[in-house]
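Action item from last meeting closed. Structure (554 res):
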């Protein structure tokens, strides 16, 4: 089982719906308690001021990740000085409350799931360790559907030696914060514990960095780490010309993985051992997530507006939110003089086009369709395109198209700035809005580009746009090989779990892989792998990565 690899050389040429008659509460006050440094659960009090006689409670879900922390909620009960309060479950993440109108106290606990010893903790999921952790957000707080805009106050009661880092607005009272409504509360995770922190200002706006260390962490150059964050942040603010926040909080956790952008903060997992070996190890991910503050949080798809307890309708704009953000992560790192994995923009374009060509799914499924299928398993059949690759390719070509159409006077930067000015977290974008901003910037026919390369399936004519930069490409195909020159086995297969099923299902990347040719299809249930039962997608990927050419898999 061998697979081909493309090498590209570029050459210079000269909500849950609001009830119709529901009365919104006047204010909601929360108290979140952590009993001790060894606690793995939180206790929450939710005082609803001016509640109607009947209302709902719900646990919201993030548009991209539904972690279903309602599974870990227990002891839900209500109290009122005016009479009895009854709570009945209406759905997995929704409860109906009947109480005398007026102030109502809701109490509950959330027992955070134990971290797996075989896998690091996801940086965006609420959890606790003896050293601290992450709380808040949709993993910790219920909200009142129909009362999302009621002002919020939050008080944290923690072990005395623990500190707090969050994007929420502080008050004169230590440990007490405010938010204009439930959505801001849900999009403001809170790091608590024994962490290190730093601060820098950009044009008078405070930016804070918090790092929660692992028990077995490795020392690294934190001064350089923070200095590089500041350099990139300054360049991104300079590009947009404005900040969409009054303060910003970076939340890093050593030993965790992944990252998630928020309204005016970001949670990112780092590995101190990697940073000790290479201080630039995490710069690309940090750049990507910080750029999301503008593109995906401030400029967000219209279907992502507001809180909801179920996943939102699919959106066709994630190629722009994710892929164009990836494009700018590399570009703005270079503009700020920081390290990038590729030696030049030309080398980066070579690698991007190679990745684009290596998977036929990218020209078989349109970027809009790929976007709508994000986090939805098996809807694209035996094709697995990447919105990141498709979107970054489109971002590069749109930038060149705007430069050509404007005679070099404008770039994709101008379209991005226009979108930031026109849209907000309360007013989402659609594909036509992106097209309009690009057309304005380039003074050209953007509609044909979007119809051909965004809304329809087919290969991007990158050769046409590379010529704008005085480049052309040559494409050669050779067998993919490891660093030692040995050919690589075809490991282009992955899996996913269906709730309630004990074994993963297969995800075929595209039909011409060895797996597709063997007659396997996306959605096939994996009963065993060479006689062994694999319990999840991670074990499947691990087994596939161990294959060598000539091996047989039954």
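Sequence:
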């Amino acid at each position: 089982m061998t697979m081909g690899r493309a090498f590209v050389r570029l050459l210079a040429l000269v909500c849950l719906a609001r009830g119709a008659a529901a009365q919104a509460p006047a204010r909601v006050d929360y108290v979140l308690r952590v009993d001790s440094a060894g606690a793995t659960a939180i206790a929450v009090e939710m005082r609803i001021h001016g509640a109607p006689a009947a209302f709902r409670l719900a646990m919201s879900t993030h548009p991209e990740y539904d972690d279903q922390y309602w599974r870990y909620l227990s002891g839900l009960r209500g109290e009122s000085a005016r009479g009895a309060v009854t709570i009945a479950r209406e759905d997995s993440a929704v409860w109906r409350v009947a109480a005398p109108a007026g102030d109502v106290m809701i109490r509950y606990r959330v027992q955070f799931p134990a971290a797996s010893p075989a896998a690091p903790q996801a940086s965006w999921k609420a959890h606790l360790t003896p050293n601290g952790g992450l709380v808040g957000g949709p993993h910790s707080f219920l909200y009142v559907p129909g009362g999302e805009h009621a002002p919020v106050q939050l008080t944290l009661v923690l072990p005395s030696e623990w500190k707090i880092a969050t994007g929420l607005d502080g008050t004169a009272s230590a440990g007490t914060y405010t938010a204009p409504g439930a959505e801001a509360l849900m999009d403001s995770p809170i790091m608590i514990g024994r962490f290190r922190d730093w601060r820098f200002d950009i044009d008078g706006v405070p930016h804070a960095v918090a790092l929660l260390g692992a028990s077995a962490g490795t020392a690294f150059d934190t001064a350089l780490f923070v200095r590089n964050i500041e350099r990139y942040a300054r360049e991104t603010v300079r590009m947009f010309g404005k900040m969409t926040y009054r303060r910003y909080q970076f939340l890093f956790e050593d030993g965790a993985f992944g990252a998630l952008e928020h309204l005016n903060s970001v949670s990112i997992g780092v590995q101190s051992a990697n940073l000790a070996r290479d201080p630039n190890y995490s710069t690309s991910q940090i750049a990507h997530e910080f750029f999301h503050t503008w593109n995906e949080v401030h400029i967000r798809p219209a279907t992502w507006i507001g809180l909801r307890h179920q996943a939102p309708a699919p959106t066709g704009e994630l190629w722009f939110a994710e892929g164009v953000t990836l494009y700018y992560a590399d570009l703005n790192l270079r503009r700020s003089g920081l390290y990038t994995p590729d030696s030049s923009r030309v080398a980066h374009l070579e690698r991007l086009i190679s990745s684009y060509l290596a998977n036929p799914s990218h020209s078989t499924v349109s970027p809009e369709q790929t976007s709508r299928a994000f986090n939805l398993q098996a809807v694209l059949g035996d094709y697995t395109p990447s919105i990141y690759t498709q979107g970054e390719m489109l971002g590069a070509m749109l930038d060149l198209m705007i430069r050509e159409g404007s005679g070099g006077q404008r770039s994709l930067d101008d379209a991005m700035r226009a979108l930031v000015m026109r849209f907000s977290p309360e007013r989402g974008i659609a594909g036509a809005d992106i097209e309009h901003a690009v057309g304005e910037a380039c003074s050209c026919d953007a509609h044909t580009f979007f119809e051909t390369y965004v809304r329809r399936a087919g290969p991007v004519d990158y050769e046409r746009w590379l010529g704008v930069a005085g480049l052309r490409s040559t494409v050669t195909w050779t067998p993919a090989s490891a660093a030692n020159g040995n050919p690589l086995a075809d490991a282009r297969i992955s899996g996913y779990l269906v709730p309630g099923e004990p074994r993963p299902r297969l995800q075929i990347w595209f039909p011409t892989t060895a797996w597709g040719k063997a007659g396997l299809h996306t959605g096939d249930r994996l009963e065993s792998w060479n006689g062994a039962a694999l319990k999840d997608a991670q074990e499947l990927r691990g087994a596939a990565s161990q294959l060598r050419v000539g091996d047989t898999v039954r």
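Note appended to the action item: The first helix runs from residue 182 to 186.
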